[in-house]
Amino acid sequence: FEKSMGFSSTVLKWQLWRKNKRKIVFNSPFLILSGRGFAFRRKQKIERQYRRLLKKRRQVPAQQGDQFTDTYPEHLKHLYLAEEEKLKKRRRKTPDDSVSSEENVSRTCTFPSRSVVTQEKFKNKTSNQKAKEEYEKIKAEHARKREEAEKRKQQREEAQRLYKKKKMEAYKILSKKTKKGQPNLNLQVEFLLQKIQQNT
């Protein structure tokens, strides 16, 4: 049969081997290991994510009913409930307090609307206003310090002037001489007496 068709057995074997090789190459699990299976893994990952999304969408309508009810863990439930009751009591008390405070303001002030506005202004200061106030405080502090420094400088200068004046007077008295050119001892003794009297 092979000879009548003109094919040798080796050629047929080679063709079969080639077909089998192609099948092995294209369906090989080694493709994934060699790095060519990246796209396949990515595809699987996307499919998984898609399935999860579908599952979540199915679950959403069932959960919408319980969305606004509070569920607390069992071991902390009593704490949460106590806190909730406190908040409810505060909410009940606050309207009465606000009414009484408004009455007090209207009694004490002749212009209640103005006072409320000014109070709100003072309470709610912007960051720019706060910065301006801080700047003004710092400016006033610097001015006060400058004035104090100026006063101290003037006092120091005055003290130095008086000291120099006394020194000059003492020098004039001590440097006076007689007609013969000798130091005048009488004036020196008088000066020393005055100094002793001032110190005692």
TrEMBL record:
Biased composition (Polar residues): 97-106
Pfam families cross-referenced by the UniProt entry: rRNA_processing (PF08524)
Region (Disordered) residue spans: 86-106, 120-163
Bias (Basic and acidic residues) ranges: 130-161
GO cellular component, one term: nucleus
Ranges in a coiled coil: none
Name of the protein: Coiled-coil domain containing 59
Gene: CCDC59
